[in-house]
Write a structure and sequence with these properties.
Elements (H helix, E strand, L loop, with lengths): L1 H29 L7 H19 L2 H25 L4 H19 L25 H5 L4 H19 L1 H11 L1 H6 L4 H27 L11 H11 L4 H23 L6 H5 L1 H14 L2 H7 L13
Helix pairs in contact: 1-6, 1-9, 1-10, 1-11, 2-3, 2-4, 2-9, 2-10, 3-4, 3-9, 6-7, 6-11, 10-11, 10-13, 11-13
GO cellular component, one term: plasma membrane
Keywords: Cell membrane, Membrane, Transmembrane, Transmembrane helix
Main location: membrane
């Protein structure tokens, strides 16, 4: 029973990383902007967050530093693709490559650094419930914040006027512009907010999830988050469930290794990426389903004068 509780807890923890990044990318894509630079933003945010905690001892400042790094890089990306008209795919890939290289360079001095002793969290009364207590109620506050963020995003996108405008910009920027909405500024705001959430995810990895700095420690989670938005057909609730699914697959490898299952460790390590490929292959069999759910202007530039 204890092993299952630990597996559930680890699944929620791993899923939070993907949920934060995927919800950020979902906001981008709902506005019609595709940012393939999630991996690079998360890496830069990871080193920014880790370095901040090393120097200040504050996890909160570390997470905020990660959000700031992600927002800054996303803002640069947004200016390039929205105002200067660069290709979204090429610019996003360049951002990922830049983030990988810059984080490796900036993190050289922090490879051997250690963070202050990690605090433990527990919800009074609920954390002592057998099985459910250790699994659900001894998590870092960011785990619960990811769930609240998902619910807030559902309300924002489908119940608020601003959210409806954001979706309209993603569906038909020409119509939104004709109605007087500042399409480019709305897209830039969405990109910056999405970048901040990707940055929060990256900082969560280095500050909470695995509190250390290692070059390339995001290990493809940014790419999985990108795939997850498609897998979830751009719906926040499905993004959250998908994040926990992929988090469970990630943690399953360690559970199987601990149980002494005679499977090559390389195959177990590849499980999350194999699951990503399988899911995308299954989704691609029905392209009409993707077209129905995908924002109509996703990846397409908008020029107000055209």
């Amino acid at each position: 029973m204890e092993a299952y509780a630990l597996l559930m807890a680890a699944t929620l923890n791993a899923g939070t990383v993907l949920a934060l990044a995927s919800l950020g990318l979902l906001i981008n894509e709902k506005a019609g902007v595709l940012n393939l630079g999630a991996e690079g933003m998360m890496l830069c945010a990871a080193i920014a967050g880790f370095a901040s905690v090393v120097h200040t001892g504050s996890d909160t400042l570390g997470l905020l530093a990660g959000m700031g790094a992600g927002a800054l890089l996303a803002g640069i990306f947004g200016v390039l693709v929205i105002w200067l008209g660069t290709n979204q795919y090429a610019t996003g890939l360049a951002l990922s490559l830049f983030g990988a290289g810059f984080s490796a360079f900036a993190g050289i001095a922090y490879v051997q650094e250690k963070l202050p002793e990690r605090a433990s969290f527990a919800v009074p009364g609920l954390s002592d419930i057998p099985l459910l207590g250790p699994a659900l109620f001894r998590q870092h506050p960011m785990v619960y914040a990811a769930v609240v963020l998902c619910l807030a995003l559902i309300w924002f996108l489908y119940r608020s006027r601003t959210g409806l405008v954001l979706r309209a910009v993603g569906e038909s920027p020409e119509s939104a512009h004709a109605l007087g909405y500042p399409v480019r500024r709305i897209r830039l705001a969405a990109v910056v907010v999405g970048g901040a959430l990707c940055g929060l995810s990256g900082a969560y990895i280095s500050v909470v999830y695995t509190p250390l700095w290692v070059e390339g420690m995001v290990a493809g989670k940014g790419w999985i988050a990108l795939a997850l938005t498609t897998f979830a057909t751009w719906r926040p609730a499905r993004v959250l469930l998908g994040a926990y699914l992929f988090g469970g697959v990630t943690m399953l490898q360690f559970h199987l290794q601990g149980a002494g299952v005679d499977v090559p460790s390389q195959l177990l390590t590849a499980l999350p990426y194999l699951a990503t490929i399988v899911v995308l292959a299954l989704i691609s069999r029905n392209p009409a389903w993707i077209r129905v759910n995908m924002p109509a202007s996703l990846g397409k530039p908008f020029h107000p004068g055209s």
